[in-house]
Design brief:
Strand content: 25-35%
Oligomer: single chain
Mean pLDDT: 81
Helix content: 40-55%
Low-confidence stretches: 237-242
Distance between the termini: 152 Å
CATH topology of the largest domain: Immunoglobulin-like
CATH architecture of the largest domain: Sandwich
Shape: rod-shaped
């Protein structure tokens, strides 16, 4: 005997439940992915700089770099100026120290010279100094002294002559040659105890000086001469000598 068939409405009932489960899962996944997309987009909008902000930031960095570079350049120039000023100051101080030492030595000498115990001497050239101005020009300073006739005024003129070699031959240059002026007048002097007279002389090219002679011609008296080696007068080796 045949069994009765199930009612038509009972066939396929579980299928709708399975389809509904899959649809719900797909919906959840779609919502999750959409949330991820919107979340990523939101993060990018928050943290990514806007085009206008990036340009402004770049320009600000450039201005800051330029300011720092200018500051470094200013500090470098200031440091160089300070170094130059310090070098110049040190040179000036050294020159002043040398000048003070020379003046103290002069004062000590003159104190002995005019003192009661000083040795009596007539008109003479106490010292001679020559300093180069260029290759041929020299500036001289001669110190003249006398303490034999106290209170008497010594007046006259001082001249120089230089002995040396030129083209292997001995030669003496007189005052007019050294001054490059015919009948050049000497340097006037007038003093009681001491005086410094100075002037300039010019040596010809190729001339090698060896000795300097200072001549004093007082008014109404006998001329006085004193010689100095070129090395002693210049404090250095004569030009052209080895």
């Amino acid at each position: 005997m045949n069994e009765p068939s199930p009612p038509p409405e009972a066939v396929g009932k579980p299928a709708p439940e399975r389809h509904q489960g899959h649809g719900l899962a797909y919906t959840v996944i779609a919502v999750f992915l959409l949330a991820l997309v919107f979340g990523a987009w939101g993060l990018w909008k928050v943290f990514a700089p806007a085009p206008g902000d990036a340009s402004a930031q770049l320009e600000e960095q450039r201005e800051r770099i330029a300011a720092l570079e200018q500051n470094v350049a200013n500090l470098t120039r200031s440091d160089q100026i300070s170094r130059n000023a310090n070098t110049a100051l040190q040179g000036t101080l050294a020159e002043r120290d040398e000048e003070i030492a020379g003046l103290r030595a002069d004062v000590a000498f003159y104190e002995r010279f005019v003192g009661a115990t000083g040795q009596r001497r007539g008109l003479t050239v106490h010292a001679l100094s020559l300093k180069p101005q260029d290759a041929q020009a020299w500036h001289f300073v001669a110190t003249l002294t006398q303490n034999l006739n106290r209170g008497a005024i010594n007046q006259g003129r001082a001249t120089l002559s230089v002995e040396g070699t030129r083209d292997g031959r001995m030669q003496q240059l007189d005052w007019s040659s050294l001054r490059q002026q015919p009948d050049a007048p000497g340097v006037d002097y007038s003093f009681k105890y001491f005086q410094r007279v100075e002037g300039d002389v010019l040596l010809p090219p190729g001339f090698k000086p060896v000795r300097v002679i200072v001549r004093l011609q007082p008014k109404g008296g006998t001329a006085v001469e004193r010689s100095f080696t070129w090395a002693d007068a210049t404090g250095a080796q004569a030009p052209g000598q080895q």
